[in-house]
Every structure is written in C-alpha cells, then in structure tokens.
Amino acid sequence: MRWLEMNDAMFEYVQRHANPSHDPVSEELAATSRERFGDLAGMNIGPDQGHLLAMLTKICGVRLAIEIGTFTGMSALWIARALPDGGRLICFDITDRYLATAREAWEAAGVADKIEVRIGPAADRLAELPDQPVDLAFIDADKTGYQQYVDLLLPRLSQRGVIVVDNVLWDGHVVTDVDQDPSTVALRAFNDNIAARDDVDAVMLPVGDGITLIHPR
User: Fold this and answer.
1) pLDDT tens per residue across span 50-62
2) What's this model's pTM, rounded to 2 decimal places?
3) What pLDDT sits at residue 143?
4) Among 70, 87, 194, 203, which residue is least crowded by beta carbons within 10 Å?
5) Which residues are within 8 A (CB) of 77 and not within 5 positions of it... i.e. 6 or more apart?
6) Where are the alpha helices (DSSP H) in the chain?
C-alpha cells in the first residue's frame, strides 16, 4: 500500500516540474475568475489537470472533443490549445453567465475559432452532436448527471476515445457514507458503477479532486 500526502509544498513542486511550468493565459484566467466570481472560481481545474487534458488530447490525436460543464473556460482552454489544425471542441453548459470571461481567454490564446458553445441541458443537447466519432470527452458538471452523460457519450466514442470525469474523489467525501448530500451520493454510485462495468476500462487518478479515465473495451 502506498500513501503520499499532497501538501502545498509538494503541489508547488509538481507544478514547477510540469513542462511548461508557466502559462500566462491560464494564470490570467484563474485570476480573473477569482476577481469576478469569488469562491466559484474553485470550480476551475488546476494546472495539473490542465496539463493532463492537453497531453491526452495530443496522445489520442483528438479531432473532436466534447466538454460538459465549461464555467469560465479553463478546461476548454487547455484542450483547445492541444487540438491539431482542423480539430474542434464543442462545449455544453447550462448557462452563458460566465461565457464572456471564457471567450476573453480563448481569444487571448488564439483558440476561440476552435470552440463552439451550446447552452442548455447537456443530456438533451448531446443528441445534436455531428455524426463524427468523439475522441475526448471531459465531464465536469452536475454530479447527479454524470452517469447519464457517460452512458450517452460511450456509444459515440472513437476507438481511441476516452472520457475524462472530474471530481470523482469529491474532497474525500465519497470514501464513507457519512455525507448524504445528493451530489456525494450520486458520485459514490457513479464510481461504483464504473468500477463494476465489463464494457469499459477505467482508472481513477488522484489528480486535482480526482479524475477517472474511461475507455471502451
């Protein structure tokens, strides 16, 4: 058994040893999100998750990426910058409240033309996807919807496709049954469901607030 506490000093060390370790656009977006939306800015992914998403996008040769839950556009920024010429990202979000902030960052990074945003319930709007295999899907939205999103996306994945699901550790609250908040309960059920399935390969990584990678068998 291995256990390693990710304290602040170790997290900073990890960030310094990413390549590149300094990213002005994402850092500015993080600062702007905090300034405009306060504690809600914590919904953004961190640079460790961003680097992972960008690397997966490149490794998988992603041509079409899907994102469910965009907020101020941090994860979309990392994915879009790693897309090849002609690649595109379709983002689904329930509100356009944060979209202006996201577009500012996408414009600054020169990737706004690769990103399309569709507002409304993702479970309904996923049916509108083009008839093209999905190579990467990132899910970071309402936790009670995770199972439905995965079930809708799996049949659309390409052979190299992967689904990336955020917040699966939920600050540790999924480990016991103490917390009965609906989001926590839904995440526990989701994690158990994915682990028990025989039609996918899945691995849970202790990156950020926990990430699960899902690939169809």
Assistant:
1) 999 999 999 999 9
2) 0.94
3) 97
4) 203
5) 25, 26, 29, 50, 102, 105, 106, 109, 111
6) 8-16, 24-37, 47-59, 74-82, 99-109, 122-125, 146-153, 182-196
